[in-house]
């Protein structure tokens, strides 16, 4: 009930926001494509002063970069429990905080201490999940849908440089991720490309499809397009799904589309109805 009200309220806000700040027609808009977010992304792309601190812009943190200290600590505990990334790996990922002026916290777990953003720990935790579920040595081509500024892609390619990584998002957001990853180009050895969903041909093949808090918030016609053009051709998949189920793809739909998929709890949980769907696990 509460989720349905939140969903409706978000739609009302979206309708009230100026049309010129949207990148695609209303019926193809996701929850995060609310006008304010795309406007702030445009500013970060066109103005270096805005880019320098985009990670603390309220219109940006409404959609991403909002992991606080408590949740960050839970991510750190999860990473340490998984035990597939070293302390020095975690420290090295602090490079993700050098651009965009994120809020930095001090996180400690036992004797280990790291000063970084909560969001960097979230991306690190997702990477740790991917290492846990899949044999990433066999993964050559990754497609990520809903990349934000490209932080997950950055950490993935730092840890697994021998891949080609396709980032998929709204055109403006792809410009931001391109600008962001360019700042780190001296560290990135992977082949990186940027595409909108509308650019995919019939059933593109990949070794791993990732979409965190993004596929779940697309409107159904776009979800169907992603299923047909990207998900069906992907050998492995990892999606963090939110509770945006009104009219959208459900757990049952996902299991029908891919009977080998498994539904797992999101750890740590960031929403009562959240879950992970994965397929092609080792
Ligand atoms: C809640 S954010 C999640 C970002 C990132 N995956 C993370 O975990 O930080 C949702 C993402 O979906 C993207 N998105 C919204 N509409 C989209 C569309 N039509 N096609 C592709 N991506 C879209 C947004 O720009 C944003 O990057």
What labels describe this entry?
282 residues; binds S-adenosylmethionine; 39% helix; 11 helices; single chain; Rossmann fold; two-stranded antiparallel sheet; seven-stranded mixed sheet
What topology emerges from the helices and strands here?
Blueprint: H1 2-16, H2 36-46, H3 48-51, H4 58-61, H5 69-82, H6 87-92, E1 105-109, E2 112-116, H7 118-133, E3 141-145, H8 151-159, E4 164-168, H9 171-183, E5 191-195, E6 208-212, H10 220-231, E7 237-241, H11 251-257, E8 262-265, E9 275-279
Parallel strand pairs: 3-4, 3-6, 4-5, 6-7
Antiparallel strand pairs: 1-2, 7-9, 8-9
Describe the protein's architecture and organization.
- Helix 2 (36-46) packs parallel to helix 9, helix 5 runs parallel beside helix 7 (118-133) and helix 7 (118-133) packs across helix 8.
- The chain has helices spanning 2-16, 36-46, 48-51, 58-61, 69-82, 87-92, 118-133, 151-159, 171-183, 220-231, 251-257; strands at 105-109, 112-116, 141-145, 164-168, 191-195, 208-212, 237-241, 262-265, 275-279.
- It is built from eleven helices and nine strands.
- The strands form two sheets. A seven-stranded mixed beta sheet has the order 5-4-3-6-7-9-8, sandwiched between helices.
- The protein has a domain at 123-279: Rossmann fold (3-Layer(aba) Sandwich).
- It has 282 residues and is of the alpha/beta class.
- The structure holds S-adenosylmethionine (SAM).
- S-adenosylmethionine binds next to loops.
